[in-house]
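F.,

This is the one I mentioned.
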């Protein structure tokens, strides 16, 4: 399980009360019983925690946990390199 999939899984468990044994990356949010309100809350958490932008309606009940993780990972800001004074 990649890092963002693990993060999403942990959020579903910790923030929304889903049971760890019920979550598999290939399951859709609909199969998990996650509705649009929870997806909106999940979007806000991801945006705030990881400084990324997910447009309204991009996380839908039809997405799998893995697909949502891929979408979020693709929106992560590019790492910056710090150049010290020469």
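My design for it:
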């Amino acid at each position: 399980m990649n890092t963002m999939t693990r993060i999403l899984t942990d959020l579903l468990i910790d923030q929304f009360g889903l049971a760890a044994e019920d979550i598999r990356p290939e399951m859709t949010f609909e199969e998990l019983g996650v509705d649009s309100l929870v997806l909106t809350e999940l979007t806000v958490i991801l945006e705030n925690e990881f400084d990324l932008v997910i447009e309204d309606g991009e996380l839908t009940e039809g997405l799998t946990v893995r697909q949502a993780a891929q979408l979020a990972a693709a929106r992560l800001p590019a790492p910056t390199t710090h150049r010290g004074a020469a």
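Residues 36-50 form the longest helix (15 residues).

Talk soon.
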